[in-house]
Amino acid sequence: MVEETRSILSRSGALRFFPSRHSPPPSSAIATATDRVGRIPELDGLRGLAILSVLFCHYGYCYAPAPGSIGAWLPPLLRLAWSGVDLFFVLSGFLIGGILIANRKASNYWRVFYVRRACRIFPLYFVVLAAFVLATATITPQPSSWLLKQEPPFWNYPLFLQNFGMAYYNSFGSDFLGPTWSLAVEEQFYLVLPFVVLLVRPVALPWVLGGLICLAPMLRLHWLTGDHFLSSYVLMPCRADALLLGVLCAWAVQQPDVARWLESRRSLLFAAFWTLLAGSVALASQYQFFYHPMMMLIGFTWLALMYATALLLAVSSKETPLKRILRVPVLRKLGDIAFGVYLLHVPIVDLLHLWIYDAVPKIETPAQFGVTLAAFALTIFVAQASFVFFEKPIIGFGHRFKFSRKPDDLDRGPAPMR
Fold first, then answer.
1. Which end of the chain is more exposed for a tag (fewer CB within 10 A), N or C?
2. What is the DSSP string of 85-103?
3. Distance between CA atoms of 63 and 82, rounded to whole angstroms?
4. Helix intervals (H) in 139-235
5. Residue 418 pLDDT greater than 60, yes or no
6. Confidence (pLDDT) at 61
7. How far is it, in rounded angstroms, from Cα 352 to Cα 256?
């Protein structure tokens, strides 16, 4: 997906002012640095930061112990770690939105998009579901009820409806499959966004996106005051602000005039980022977790704005400390395998603690801390093996399907604004 985004930026004109390896630096353009194989290294790095944040949340925050134990110092340092999924949403909106906006006139628009999405999401996801079924059949129910419970019912998961079930039961359900709520959100988003991009004229798209972004906090407030408060966190319309901010960024970098305007005001982007970051830290210090009403009403959108600003800075043409950090090889490698890490990290840590301690994962002792570190290492190893030997060949097959574009579309980039 990242390679395709680079190609889209180039066609649309956002890379028109970006220098080749031997040309002088540009005076203005929102662009993106690419390496030899055409990837956008900074976006890999952002994805790596997002999955690290999720890992720290689920391993160091959610499983953090009682005061005075070895892990008690972790929660205050990780109060924003749960928002790693918000960064994933912004990135997904940017990458998927960019692909759809650039190819909205393709005759095979629907087929190529959904074939590629299926090749990326379905294989490993359904392997994890099969592993859950196997675990349910082989593990003694009593000590593992938290890991394998059937609320929401299992049939929700193959249909990507588990977030509705979680909202109904006010519970993330089985710990084994708990993180998959965000995949359901994204799959439902993939059903809606192609229609929006296709039916809304490019000139009107930012206004429509802006209206929908403003609607999301109001929907969260509505659900927050009802009996099913978790709806505010797990239902797609309630989380659409982060996804659509990513789409809005994709629209912006594909419009040459908007891209130049943003590039010429990079200092304002930096000021906005630091302001949003300071506000995020303040929110996290005041409201420790996502379920606080103020965090749901204001905090989610605030965090998404911060991540969207960071994304725009990451794809800016000028070299900055942020871009150098995002190109750190470890972060980029984590970004490559982020999908596998996300799906596998909770089942692995849960099964290890269940096997060794016959209990819910905790980090109250050095030994428990060591088991959690072992789970982290095993997750990285399995995710890397899965990516290289299982996911990547299927992704490659999906990318054999190409969007068809008319020759004049290729020359002029996106549809003219009118």
1. C
2. HHHHHHHHHHHHHHHHHHT
3. 13
4. 145-148, 162-169, 181-199, 205-224, 231-234
5. no
6. 64
7. 51
Please write the tens of the pLDDT for every residue from 222-270. 887 777 888 999 999 999 999 999 999 999 999 888 888 888 888 899 9
Question: Does the residue 181 lie in any domain?
Answer: yes
Tally of domains within the chain: 1
Tell me which residue range forms the domain holding 208.
2-19+27-402
Does residue 417 form part of some domain?
no
The Cα–Cα gap between 138 and 268 comes to 57
> To which residue do tokens 């901010």 refer?
245
**What pLDDT does residue 26 have?**
33
Query: Which residue type is seen at 289?
Result: F
- φ, ψ of residue 162 to 5 degrees: the values are -65, -25
Q: Is residue 410 part of a domain?
A: no
Give a yes or no: residue 407 inside a domain: no
Distance CA 401, CA 131 (A): 30
Eight-class DSSP state of 316: B
The alpha carbon dihedral of 306, 310, 311, 312 has a sign of positive
pLDDT in tens, 29-61: 333 333 333 468 899 999 999 999 999 888 876
3-state secondary structure of 30: strand
Q: What is the pTM of this model?
A: 0.86
